[in-house]
Amino acid sequence: MSEPTLEQWNLQTMVLMHALLGSISSNFRMVTLRWKIDQWVIDFILEKENTEDFEEISEIMEDYDSLQEKYIKFMSIITVTDAPIRMPEFPERAIFRRKEI
């Protein structure tokens, strides 16, 4: 697939938002969606390592997959850091970002 259309971006945003419902703990700092070469990439940024959150992310990805209208390629990346984080640059989208002081 070439670069996704705005409609495809919006669909994947809504699907990911739906998959995240009820799954985000206070350890989640940000979740982003981006397109890389030929697949969707979902980045999870956590404040600290937590087995329950890793399991929850696995379930989120299963939900994300099951909500697709057809087969798509995607992957997830988990980063654990307490360093300052920046808002993603266009076209990457922040689907969730907790308020940090």
Blueprint (SSEs and pairs):
Elements: H1 6-20, E1 28-36, E2 39-46, H2 51-66, E3 74-80, E4 93-97
Parallel strand pairs: 2-3
Antiparallel strand pairs: 1-2, 1-4
Helix pairs in contact: 1-2
Can you tell me about this structure?
The protein has 101 residues and is α+β, with helices and mostly antiparallel strands. It has one domain (6-97): 2-Layer Sandwich (Alpha-Beta Plaits). The N and C termini lie far apart (39 Å). The chain is built from 2 helices and 4 strands; from the N terminus they run αββαββ. Strands 3-2-1-4 form a 4-stranded mixed β-sheet, with helices on one face. The protein is globular and about 35 Å long.
| Total individual domains | 1
Fraction of residues in H or I helices: 25-40%
Q: What is the CATH T-level topology?
A: Alpha-Beta Plaits
Strands in their spatial order, largest beta sheet: 3-2-1-4
Order of helices and strands: HEEHEE
Give the biggest beta sheet: 4 strands, mixed
Q: How does the overall form come out from the CA principal axes? A: globular
Architecture (CATH level 2) name: 2-Layer Sandwich
User: Spans of 5+ residues with little confidence (pLDDT < 50)?
Assistant: none
Q: Structural class given helices, strands, pairing?
A: alpha+beta
Gap between N and C termini, in Å?
Answer: 39 Å
Task: Return Rg in Å.
Answer: 13 Å
> How many beta-strand runs?
4
Q: How much β-strand is present in the residues?
A: 25-35%
CATH C-level label: Alpha Beta
Please tally the helical runs, counting DSSP H or I stretches of 4 or more residues: 2
Q: How confident is the prediction overall: mean pLDDT? A: 96
